[in-house]
Each structure stands twice: as structure tokens, then as C-alpha cells.
Amino acid sequence: MKVFTALEAKNRFGKVIDAAQREPVTVTRQGRPSVVIVSAEEYERRQSRAWRNLLAVMEQTGRYAAEQGLTEEALDQLLADES
Q: What does the pLDDT read at residue 58?
């Protein structure tokens, strides 16, 4: 992973963009990582993977709840009891 200081990133932004097209780039401030820059393609890939993972967990949770006998009515009652 390429690393640029904030000043380097500011002064050589074109190079930062070029590097981020190949791999994530870390920008540091005062010697500590501040941000990571990734290409738009990599960002979209990560977002898509995150959504797929979330949907899979939601489906698994729904199946488990159904197996345990949790119905829409029972869920409504549980939620109503909390208010």
C-alpha cells in the first residue's frame, strides 16, 4: 500500500489518484494514518460485497426467527411491549 503525507498528497494529487487506481493509498497526518483512498471501482466492489453480506445475514436471521416460531404478530407484540 502506498503512503503519502497530507502535504505530499496535496502537492502531488495526480500521482495519488494514479496510485489509487492500482491499490489503496493511505494519507497520513502527523505521522498517523488519516484516510485511505481507493479507486471508484474498488469502492463499488466493496459496497456491493457489504450489501450482499448484509442481505445474507438478514435472510439467515429471518430463517432462524421462523424456525424458533417468531411470527409477525409475535414480533409486533414484542415491539409494542417495549414502548
A: 96
Q: Are the C-beta atoms of 27 and 16 separated by less than 8 Å?
A: yes
Burial class, 9, CB count within 10 angstroms (exposed 0-12 / middle 13-18 / buried 19+) = buried
Q: Considering only CA atoms, which of 56, 54, 2 is closest in space to residue 28?
A: 2
Q: Which residues pair with 3 in a beta bridge?
A: 26
Spell out the residues 6+ positions from residue 16 whose beta carbon is closer than 8 angstroms to its own.
4, 8, 9, 25, 27, 37
The region of weakest confidence among 1-15, 22-36, 64-78 is 64-78
Domain 2-38, CATH class in plain words: alpha beta
Helix (H, G, I), strand (E, B) or coil at 24: coil
Global pTM? 0.71
Query: What pLDDT is stored for residue 83 in this prediction?
Result: 59
